[in-house]
Design a protein that fits this description.
By secondary structure, the chain is an alpha+beta fold. It has helices spanning 2-16, 21-64, 68-71, 74-84, and strands spanning 92-101, 107-108, 121-134, 145-155. Helix 2 runs antiparallel to helix 4 (74-84). The protein is rod-shaped, with a radius of gyration of 31 Å.
Length: 159
């Protein structure tokens, strides 16, 4: 009889004890903390790729805006953009030469067959860099890859 009473007392004492509670709480919260940490890492990587695309577009435009000769050097503009974009294989570079006549908004240059553009023409170079961001892990309900892009427009300096 004494052992039954002491067993009941031991069970009551253990039920009121708080030993090990923090370990149980930590075990419950740890997966949520890891999930949030992975989300922050993924968001940071996406932001990095977006900034990288914008900087690559700016580097290509800076090369093309140096002169009218560089403006038509699509290969040089593409190489400058890719070099600044860390030569990632997924980058696609699109180059456009634009003109503005008489203060109008820049549009595609209207020269054809080697004819000269009208007077008061201002030349612009536009570079768009796009690519694909692939996440480290596959999350349910979220796409495994997302497109990133950056674009830049600059007036040609020496015309």
């Amino acid at each position: 009889m004494r052992s039954l009473r002491s067993t009941k007392a031991l069970v009551k004492r253990l039920a009121r004890s708080e030993r090990g509670v923090s370990l149980v709480e930590f075990a419950i919260v740890l997966p949520l903390m890891i999930f949030m940490l992975m989300g922050l890492i993924e968001f940071g990587r996406y932001a990095f790729y977006s900034i990288l695309a914008a900087n690559a577009a700016r580097a290509g435009v800076q090369y093309g805006a140096q002169s009218t000769g560089n403006m038509v050097d699509t290969t040089g503009i593409t190489n400058a953009a890719l070099a600044d974009g860390q030569n990632l294989p997924s980058w696609n570079v699109t180059v456009k030469q634009l003109c503005s006549v008489g203060g109008a908004a820049p549009a595609t240059c209207a020269t054809s067959n080697g004819s000269t553009p009208p007077t008061n023409t201002i030349y612009y170079v536009q570079v768009q860099v796009s690519g694909t961001y692939n996440s480290l892990l596959r999350y349910p309900g979220l796409p495994a890859s997302v497109s990133v892009s950056g674009s830049s427009l600059m007036r040609v300096i020496y015309q």
